[in-house]
Amino acid sequence: MFPIRDVNPTRIKPVVTVGFILASLFVYFFVQAQSTDEVSFLYERAVISCEVTTGSPLSFDEAFQNVCRSGSEAPMFPDKNPFLAAVTSMFLHGSVFHVLSNMWFLWIFGNNVEEAFGRVRYVAMYLASGIAATVTFVVMNPDSTIPLVGASGAIAGVLGAYAVLFPTHRVQSLVGYWLLPVPAAIFLGIWFILQFNVGVPNVAWEAHVGGFVFGFALALFSRRSLLRRVAA
To answer: Does residue 73 carry a pLDDT above 80?
Structure first.
């Protein structure tokens, strides 16, 4: 099931959503893709669980042996801030498909959430969802030495908020060969359940779940005031 568009018009120009999309596309195609060594690029700039739990950048041995130690050896990138990397990771991606699919979901669902939250709070919610997603992944994988990249966690927060605010709005979805209107609650509920398919390689399902739950809870807590903004 793949979303084509949602039947949920807005009265605003979603400048923040478009800004996040353009920033992510620019970073991937004009910064990340231009690096001569993409692996080193990601190790230098992406968040890594081991670095967060130990508070220090990985050494070469830790990275190549996939072992998390206390940081007693010389780090690969001594100037790296392991915590600031949680923000930069949201604008890095693992492949063209990764960045394009993420941005497509953000384009479909982000504008309505932006309208409900307002631009400033929407920026805060997006970034906070991404950080919550990272924290969830780190807690469940404290010794991981693999870079965690992508806006998926932040976008999952947007999806969680959308599920709370607009559960009955239809999402035109490609289901097999058919284009069907699916209520957002059903579409996003299925999306959430599918994240637990832990057999899929290179997918940080923990981050997706953490981001979704954070966005869902945040929107649920202030649902009345957010919906008043949309209805006003």
So the answer is: no
For residue 171 the two structure tokens come to 């999402």
Q: Tokens 């202030």 — which residue?
A: 222
> What region does 187 belong to: left with phi over 0, alpha with psi -120 to 50, or beta?
alpha
154 to 61, 128, 175: CA distances (angstroms): 31, 7, 25
Q: Point out the least confidently predicted range of 62-66, 99-103, 111-115, 119-123.
A: 62-66
Q: Are strands 170-175 and 2-6 parallel, antiparallel or unpaired?
A: antiparallel
Angle formed at CA 187 by CA 184 and CA 188, multiple of 5 degrees: 80
> What is the percentage of the chain residues whose pLDDT exceeds 70?
97
Please give the backbone phi and psi of residue 170, each rounded to the nearest 5 degrees, phi first: -90, 140
